[in-house]
Design brief:
Elements: H1 17-22, E1 44-59, E2 75-82, H2 83-92, E3 97-104, H3 107-119, E4 128-130, E5 137-143, E6 146-152, E7 169-176, H4 183-190, E8 194-199, E9 220-221, H5 225-232, H6 237-244, E10 250-254, E11 260-264, E12 270-273, H7 286-299, H8 304-318, H9 331-342, H10 349-353, H11 357-361
Parallel strand pairs: 1-3, 1-5, 1-7, 3-4, 7-8, 8-9, 9-10
Antiparallel strand pairs: 1-2, 5-6, 10-11, 11-12
Amino acid sequence: MMASTVPAGERSSDDTAARRAQRPDRRTHLDPLAALRTPADPRCDVYLTGTVFLDIIFTGLDSAPVRGTESWARGMGSSPGGVANMATALARLGLRTSLAAAFGDDHYGEYCWDTLEQGEGIDLGPSRTVPGWHSPVTVSMAYEGERTMVSHGHEPPPEEPAPTCPPHARAAVASLTPGRSAPWIAQAASRGTRVFGDVGWDDTGTWSLAGLPDLRHCEAFLPNAEEAMRYTGTDCPRTAAHALTAHVPVAVVTLGADGAYAVDRRTGETAEVPAIAVEALDPTGAGDVFVAGFVAGSLAGWPLADRLAFGGLTAALSVQEFGGSLSAPGWAEIAAWWHEVRSVQGEDAAELGRYAFLQDLLPEEPVSGWPLRRAVPTIGFRSSS
């Protein structure tokens, strides 16, 4: 993903403040932090920054495209992507989410802005539309439970001087970049913001934890198994998780189809949760949804095993829908899964017990809320006369 920037432009959240105040809240009515909130709390639960892409996803491919041939997909969806995946997943779990991002000055950018702000209730106050800059685009092809992506975009123009500090928030999600430091991460941590760090593939091939200078400001680090083993020089992801706690209090290593493993150095907790077996339609953004679920559980003060289980559940629900951002589940989908799985005859009691924490969290009555937006084949349909 390209470097995160927040350039100045003509459009900001201030332009739509009145509209936002008049429209109904489309997020779920279930607030996982309700019991913890006080008047002195920061306005924002989670802050994040990055680049917003327009994602175009093709599904229903029988195999990878073959050179020199044309492949037809049985499904197609368009939705905001990039950092929008994480922001949407957080907002749909009832967390007050603030996003600082550059948006393209085109129809794609307008669609992404309106979808995130109006559709998902995400605060775009720190974001800007960049005049004359086109939206980055990713085409994702899903097949055989995997995906192949092609992206195009340009760095936005240099931003104006950034604020001295990002908005005060309970937590922040930071994408750590090998060899680079983002000053806002240290600023946020110094104000008491709990920083959750993830990381992408190290294209330099160095795989040195010293090359992640912002890791020291993180409360938790959430690499996948391959990344964790490369960074620690180990050949076992569980061993890698323990090794990472020498550098960060909480290490969470995702294991793909095998679930996730985590260690909390402060409490001595370790936890491993297997993945929920589902038929994946589109895995785009599943890792972001997992992180969002883990962050929500962490802010709510849940035990480590429950946080892992919740992250895995939200990720499993997301891959059954099109698109990274708009595939993220809300509480209505989580409640529906919990009620349905308990009604299945012969369901393993131990497996159900892993998610027993949902019983006290979810109300007996169905969770109300607006229907969630899902990815659509294309955007910009004209209204019929």
